[in-house]
Amino acid sequence: MNIQATLVLALGLAAGAAQAATEIVVATVNNGHMITMQKLTRHFEQANPDIKLKWVTLEEGVLRQRVTTDIATKGGQFDVMTIGMYEAPIWSKKGWLNEIRTDAAYDVGDLLPAMRSGLSLNGKLYAAPFYGESSMLMYRKDLADKAGVQVPERPTWAQVADLAKKIHNPAAGVYGICLRGKPGWGDNMAFLSTLVNTHGGQWFDMAWKPQIDSAPWHEAVNLYVNLLKNYGPPGSSANSFNEILALFNAGKCGMWIDATIAASFISDPKQSKVAAQVAFAQAPTATTPKGANWLWAWSLAIPAGTQKTDAAQKFVAWATSKEYVRLVAKEEGWGAVPTGTRQSTYAIPEFQQAARFAAAEKLAIDTANPNDSTLPKSPYVGVQFAAIPEFQAIGIAVGQQMSAALAGKTTVDAALKTSQAAAEREMRKAGYYK
Amino acid sequence: MHKTLTPTPLPLMREKEQAADAGPRSVRLLPRILLAPAVLSLLVWMLVPLVMTIYFSLVRYNLMQPGEREFIGLDNIAYFVSDPDFGPAVAHTLQLLCAVIAITVVGGVALALLVNDPFPGRGIVRVLLISPFFVMPTANALLWKHMMMNPIYGVLAQVWQWFGATPVDWLTDHPLFSVIVMVSWQWLPFACLIFITSLQSLDREQLEAARMDGANALQRFRYLTLPHLGRSIAVVVMIEMIFLLSVFAEIFTTTGGGPGNESTNVAFLIFKQALMNFDVGVASAGALFAVVLANIAAAFLIRLIGKNLDK
Amino acid sequence: MHPRWMLALRTVAAWFFTLLLFFPLGWLALTAFKTELQAIEVPPHWLFTPTLENFVEVQRRSDVLLFAQNSLITSVVSTVLGLMIAAPAAYSMAFFRTRHTRDLLMWMLSTKMMPAVGALVPVYVLAQTAGLLDSLTALIIVFTLSNLPIMVWMLYSSLRDIPGEILEAARMDGATLWTECRHVVMPLALGGLASTGLLCLVLSWNEAFWSLNLSSARSGTLATMIASYSSPEGLFWAKLSAASLVAIAPIVAFGWFSQKQLVQGLTFGAVK
Questions:
Q1: Which residue of C has its CA nearest to A76?
Q2: Residue C177 is part of a domain; what is its CATH number?
Q3: Which residues of A, range 393-412, sit inside 8 Å of C by Cβ?
Q4: Could you give the 3-state DSSP secondary structure of residue A15?
Q5: B172–A238: do the CB atoms touch at under 8 Å?
Q6: Minimal Cα distance from C131: which residue of A?
Q7: Which of A4, A180, A264, A323 has its CA 20 to 30 A from that of A223?
Q8: pLDDT tens, position by position, C38-95
Q9: Residue A56: CATH number of its domain
Q10: Pick from C125, C216, C235: which is nearest to A25 by CB?
Q11: Mind listing the pLDDT tens digit for each residue in A131-154?
């Protein structure tokens, strides 16, 4: 009898102990750094035996739709969500996010100022940056040398156009410059927004009227279309990050202006044929250096409706801490650590050695300011987007028109006019003005 | 030599059916009981989301502003149809529908006939033929976009270059056509399988008799095979219509509706409203419009092929 | 007997078109065994040393067993459930036709006319109210009801394919409805039942929209697994090909295996 009772008690205790483990569901993008984070789950679970992690990884666009639907309908499916600099300001203003609690060990002051301010509201941090990026110019030093051109650290667009012409050699399978063309507010419009910014343009003026049919936009888009038509690869209007990455790695692109994270791929000899010949410079400027390079951070946020706030806070703090960076370095090497978030990372000599692009990347991030990225004053926050809910639909509509102009289906003027009309329509419906 | 061939008459069966309408209660009750589970479950499945969608389409409901829910009547549907892309979207939807149905029915019948009679390796061929249907639509789209249609490193580009021509930029220059190709590729096996199965029940003796009477292959096809296939063609057309009207994954993954609006269809417009704008009101209005469009298409198609269903 | 060259011509034509149709899928299968760098090589590699690294990565990164199990459960249960509901309905409509039968068929089809993306929020809110988010039950219900009209249509069609004389003969021999069903209709309708079942199994297996939106941590299917390999930042085609192969391997194997049963000739001559 006693043995039976003991057994039952033991089983009951074991079951109770097992039930005590809190399970949190983390939704994240399927980019390399996040996959690494998923790989290191066991380290977190060992350090926190009462927390179990469950993962949902999806591509960026699908993830955004999924988590927005869930948080807006209070579905409660996720305890930690990966969101970007676009969602963080909007959602925190609506009170949908829990404030990220940090302690002294976390050293929130270590976060890069641009990142911290982009993810905070009224001085409170609402999403912890996991990895951040800006945009910069990546080019083939061997081709530039052969053309006798020395690329300065901060080139102008005139210089870039000139270099593209010199190194464009389709017979040898090299295209002068590769740029994004696939329609999407985070695809071609991310790049085009910075191009417009640096030509002195903006998305909306202080009265929230779209400015798409303005002179800076015309200048910028004409430059873009002409550059790609003359010195770009075929199929540009369907190319996004991955397509150009494949081209660059195969040695087909002379220059590429895109996210700084691309630098880690193209300088990795395991992935890239031209790893040793890559060099970096800041994103080109034209009329103004403001907004010439974008700012983006993938960050971890905790929805306000979750039941497991404590566990979620612990996880978020772990994944964005200094110790995490060292953990990744230990397990995967210094070239694979998440960058663009903490100043301390850039100070580590091993990291600087492993990542040749680190200095250029940090400079780019430091010079990007979402609160002041246009020459004329703007009412919105964001360098390559406007952090208002209506922007996604406007961005994709404009992106489609730009892609059509690039494909030669419509003239640049017509595309800009149509885009302007579409943007006005959305803004009017959203009630910004009658 | 017979000039015309008549199919085997089935008089007795039909009379029995007409009697089902007017018979003793016990006879009429049984068919209703058999139908009940299907009808009831579909009724609930249809009504509940439909009622909710109608409600949402009449109010202002944006996921980003969940609190506000005022009644705005027809404003949502007006906004949806006043989109400059609306007209092209409807046109593209119908173009896609007709093209894919035409390709899959004609191709499906041709292939089914080709593999109907025995030849070496027929088993394997049949297996390979239906395989593309197993691929998931997103994987299908990515496969075509990157591996087949890319103008630099795609397989089609290599083939074109091998023949000395400049590769075609499929997704840029012929976006709707490219989407049609992708979708047809996926649905051709479906049509094939249905036609192959249907051909199995084709009366061989009748075919033999006709051949011996001197009818050539074309006549045998036109007067014996085709009528027999009539019903399965109707089934394929109607089922494909339902799926093709809401093709979305392929467009989203490959062309993003572009360039411009050249490959946008109604489903993509609804997606833009629902998951880009998070405007559930307009998206619901769009969904209702899609239902109306589907009903019109169905009514039209039924008029065309409906009598085949009754045979 | 047909002349030999006709047979040769037919064989060549059949093989040519089949290989043409199958080629993209075969290319996908090849790519799954390449490295990422090889996958984007221009001109494409036909001969290369195959590697299993992509499959290892897929196995390590995704809980393949859980996804496969969920796919299996949702597809099989929804197909069986659907057939159980659809078969009697199709039987009734095929053999007890009324003047409303065609309208009923059209109405059933019309329940599928609303694009899924338009019904997302209503269904999501419904599922959440019922506490069925991230559950296999929700997926089974959605799959069953989505495929029900297709099943009814296809079963109806294959039942109508049965020549009237056979049933007439059975009835004249004094068979009751049940005997007629069991001994005459069932064997003849087996081919149609099997192909309907297979097609709806595939439709459920590949269903990505509702699987993605109604599931999160626990009830994801292989279709959602694929979604996690699609378009990340960086090269992914080899891994996606491998993940796709893993996802479709069970259903393809099943389809190939049951091919013989599916297209077994219904030898009416013998029956007569």
A1: C128
A2: 1.10.3720.10
A3: none
A4: helix
A5: yes
A6: A75
A7: A264
A8: 877 766 777 788 889 899 988 888 888 999 999 999 999 999 999 999 999 998 888 8
A9: 3.40.190.10
A10: C216
A11: 999 999 999 999 999 999 999 999
Computed over every residue of chain A, the mean pLDDT equals 91
**pTM higher than the cut 0.90:** no
B–C interface: beta-carbon pairs under 8 A: 307
Q: Is residue A101 part of a domain?
A: yes
Specify whether the CB–CB gap between B140 and B182 falls below 8 A. Answer: yes
> Structural domain of residue A206, as residue ranges?
134-294+372-429
Q: Which of A252, A392, A418 sits opposite B276 (nearest CB)?
A: A392
Which chains touch A (3+ CB pairs under 8 A)? B, C
* B236 to chain C: closest CA residue: C154
Which residues of chain C does B253 touch, with a Cβ-Cβ cutoff of 8 Å? 230-231
Determine whether the interchain pair A56/C217 forms a contact, defined as Cβ–Cβ distance below 8 Å.
yes
Domain extent listing, chain B:
9-52, 58-310
Whether A141 is covered by a domain: the verdict is yes
CA A12/CA A355 separation, integer angstroms: 52
Mean pLDDT for B144-157 is: 82
Give the total number of structural domains in chain C: 1
Contact A399 B258 (CB under 8 A): yes
Q: Cβ contacts (< 8 Å) between C56 and chain A: which residues?
A: none
pLDDT, tens digit (0-9, with 9 covering 90-100), for A289-300:
999 999 999 999
Instruction: Identify whether residues A153 and A226 lie together within a single domain.
Output: yes
Which of A271, A306, A308 to mutate: most C Cβ within 10 Å?
A271
- DSSP-derived secondary structure for A86-100: THHHHHHHHT-EEPP
Write down the architecture of domain B58-310 according to CATH: Orthogonal Bundle (1.10)
Q: Are residues A180 and A300 in the same domain?
A: no
Per-residue confidence band for C230, with pLDDT thresholds at 50, 70 and 90: confident
**Whether residues A408 and A266 fall in one domain:** yes
Find the CB nearest B79 among A73, A400, A429. A429
CB–CB contact B64 A410 (8 Å)? no
C-chain residues within 8 Å CB-CB of A58? Answer: 212, 227-228
Domain count, chain A: 2
pLDDT at C43: 67
